[in-house]
Amino acid sequence: MYIKGRYIVSACALLFLQQALASGMDCTKAASVVEKAICADKPLYELDAQMGAAYRKLMKATPAQTEVKKAQREWLKERDRCGEEVSCLSQRYQDRLQVLHAQWIDAVAYKPDEIDKQVMEDLQLLVREMSKENPEFALERALGSLTTANGETSFSGDPSDDNTYDQTLFPKSIPKGVTQNEWEALNASGLDAEAEQGQANYTLIDLDGDGQRDLIVSTYTGGTGLFSFYETFRRDGERFTRRLAPYDLDAGAGSSLFSTNDRGANQSAGWIKSHGRMYLAYRNGSYGADDVYLLNPLKINSQMPTVTVRYDYKLTVPRSQHRDADDTAYNIEAGLQKTLTQALIKSNAGKPLLTNPQQGPICPVPASEEDPESYNSYGASYYAVEPVTDMPVIIANECYIARLINWFGSYDEKNGLPALLMLRKPGPEGTELSYSVNGRRHVTQVSTSIGKAEGGAEFF
């Protein structure tokens, strides 16, 4: 199963905040200048309550309680030096909350073992081997060879009667492929809150090899990035238990194992099986590189086995171009095609690891220019595209500042890498031009590492 590719404040999260506030400082006993300042400022009081809840959660999770207590005492001394200065107190609390959260993650996160590392190394070798026959799609073929359906059943939520909200409801009748026993467990698991986040879909699949199918809930929330969020639930006797429940009793709807962004990113995820274990192979792409993170589907993932595949591209400017204004095709002159192609080659745009930004002006700066820095780059880019590099292009003895952009390394067999070369004539009334660029890639490096994820798999 392959899925192409915020934190949501849920009802459960709000309940958690209310509970935290209820257990905050007793302001009737405030004595010091700092305590009185905290009680007089609602945002500070909320931060104090959150810090207290985070501290208690860490103390339950860590074996190093003595060290945590000592650090907390030192922090209180540092906090008290702020006196009644609200901005200073607020910064101290925010910094401490980040530290406590990071320490909690370190205490409860899954630590990759030798089998996980072997799976990572095996995937690296598989990609290298397949790149000998197909240097364009070695990663896709390697992951495809490990993909498993594993007795999978998927079903959608029911449409909501209320058209005001773009969401679904948990089904009222048993879907096809779901056993009676699973249906009873699903209904006992309080899944209505998941559907409140958006359009929900449900997949039953055995994620831990115990012979019982676990649950994946995917929720499409849309928004600017066309986001989808995914959370997993372990089959636990008579119900399905949220992945985070053993580590955080207050975890609720809105938590995620990973997300995908279909506008402003190039992300996908699929289930693979290796050495008897299931992994969520989360792929985050960019120009010249794919990072594949191997997530344990039922744990908190912090340090993740990662396979990185790097590419070079053979970039070409096709004679046939397209006008967006009137949706028509036209041919550019052979001389212009050659000029644009040579500019790409000279900039090393097809070799991402060798591409370096040009220092200083890209085109000559006239003595009368009031904004010389505008000659140093093409300018700001739209968030939904990925800038690759800027370069000069000389057309009819006129210097243009050009930028190669793409869509985060998106690639397919028919079109290869779709890219765009944007040109602007420097100056207040400079002409703007754009030409499509095609790229065919090949694998140049495959490496492994264990570390933090980027993209939509970095929730912790």
Any descriptors?
10 helices, alpha+beta, globular
What is the topological layout?
Blueprint (H helix, E strand, L loop, with lengths): L1 E3 L6 H12 L10 H8 L1 H20 L3 H16 L5 H23 L5 H20 L4 H9 L6 E4 L1 E2 L8 E2 L10 H8 L4 H4 L3 E7 L8 E9 L4 E10 L2 E4 L15 E4 L4 E9 L2 E10 L2 E7 L8 E13 L3 E4 L4 E4 L2 H13 L39 E10 L2 E9 L10 E8 L7 E20 L9
Antiparallel strand pairs: 1-10, 2-5, 3-4, 5-6, 6-7, 7-8, 7-9, 10-11, 11-12, 12-13, 13-19, 14-15, 16-17, 17-18, 18-19
Helix pairs in contact: 1-3, 2-3, 3-5, 4-5, 6-7
Pfam families: LprI
Protein name: DUF1311 domain-containing protein
Keywords: Signal
Describe the structure.
The chain has three domains: 31-108; 114-310 and 447-457, no CATH class; 313-444, no CATH class. The chain has helices at 11-22, 33-40, 42-61, 65-80, 86-108, 114-133, 138-146, 180-187, 192-195, 334-346; strands at residues 2-4, 153-156, 158-159, 168-169, 199-205, 214-222, 227-236, 239-242, 258-261, 266-274, 277-286, 289-295, 304-316, 320-323, 328-331, 386-395, 398-406, 417-424, 432-451. Helix content is 29%, strand content 30%. The relative contact order is 0.12. With 460 residues, the chain is α+β, with helices and mostly antiparallel strands. The protein starts with a strand and ends in a 9-residue tail after the last strand. Strands 1-10-11-12-13-19-18-17-16 form a nine-stranded antiparallel sheet, covered by helices on one side. Strands 2, 5, 6, 7, 8 and 9 form a six-stranded antiparallel sheet that branches. α6 (114-133) packs across α7.
